[in-house]
Structure formats: C-alpha cells, structure tokens
Amino acid sequence: MAEMLVDGENADSSGRVSRPTLAQVKAVVEFMQKHPDLAHRKLRYGVSHQKFKKLWIELSNIANSIDGAIKSTKGWIKFWSDKRRSIMIKHKQIENGKLMGSLSPLEQKILDLCENKNPGRSKKGVKQEPCDDDDDNDSLDDIFTKAVENDFDNQMFANEAEERQLNTMEKLVDVMGQQATAMSQMAQAAMDNSKALERLAEASHIQALAVDRLATTFETISSSIHDVRNALLGIDYTMKRCYSTTATQPRQNTNIFS
Fold it and tell me: Where are the annotated segments for Disordered (predicted)?
C-alpha cells in the first residue's frame, strides 16, 4: 500500500473527489496530535528522516482509507502545508482586524498544533512562539519537506526502473519458454520421424520375408515342374518301349507259322 502511495497521484482517475472531506481532515489532525513532532517543525530536528517519511506514509494510508480524496504521500504533505499556512494567515487577519469572525474548533486545533500548544509535550517556562513569525524555520520546513518529496521521487524512479527490469525479465522468460516449447516440438517431431523410420524398416523386413517366401514358392514350383517333366519322360519311355514290343511280336508269329 505504501508503495502505491509513493507513485504519482491517481486520485482524479479513480472517480473520487480531489478535495479532502471533513472526516479526512479530522483524521489528519488527530494523527498530528498523536505525533506533534510531525506537525510542528521545531520538534522535527530530533526525528530521523526515515521515521518522518514512515509517519507520512502511515498518515497517507489512514487518510486514503476514509471515503473522500485519494492523494499520494506528497499530496498529503502539500495539503497539510497549504492548510496550515491558510489558517495562520486567517488567524493573523483576525488578530489585525482585517477579517471578522473567529477560527472554527478544527482550525483552532490546527493552529495549536502549528504553535506547538500540546499539553503533553509543552514545558513550563518555555515561551511558545507563533510559527508564522519565523521565516527561517519556514524555509527549513520547506527544505525538509522538499527533501522528503525528492526522496519519494527517487524511490518512484527506482521502482519504475525495477519494474522495467522485471518486465524485461518477464519478456526474457517468455522468450525462453517459447524456445523451450519449440525445442520440445522439434524433439517430438524427431521422435515421430524415428518412429516412422522404425515402421518403414519393419515394413521393409516384412517385404523381404514375403520376397523370400515367394522365392521359396518359385523353387518349389520349379522342383515340381522338374518332377512332372521326369514323370512325363518316364511315361514316354514306357509307352515307346511297350509300342516297340507290340510292333515286333506279329512278325515273329508269322515266321513261326510259315
């Protein structure tokens, strides 16, 4: 959630109002009352930069969780700075008689935070100075706020660079996945080709066996023909022999009776 708040403000595209609601302002003031070192610049010098940034991120999460405006952490920092300055100007105009009326209870709480009128942290004998009379501290406050904003910008750029790197790695993984798929398809095609060659070799073997059986059949037929030929020759020889015997026998009888 914190990383989402560091990015640029996307509140306008979400359909929610860009102006904070009263509930959000009250939540911001209550958080500032719990952490006066965040609200009053004179107490910030003992606060580490990391803690200051962490508190602002926490405040941004709380404010954005309430129905109303959605702002980045930089947006809530700017809102608080503008709100504080406008109330200080209004208070000064009321004191000088340039503006009639008085501050609302909520505005008075913000002014008290600005002037560090916190019973839990104020010390006796220490004179509280209005924060709108110290231009040097305002400059330091702006510098510190800008430093935080720059830190958020740097973090945003780092996140963008990291995101681009992750996108590049994802694309590389996708390409490697496609290559692996192509290699798998090639291996499958090679396996299919090998199986086809095996089937072709088996068919060739079957054909060779068929040719061998055909040759054996031809040999058997040739042997049978040879046997038939021999039988015919034997029959022919027998018939010729019998014919010769029959032809010579009457002559012998004629000679006998003569």
Answer: 117-137
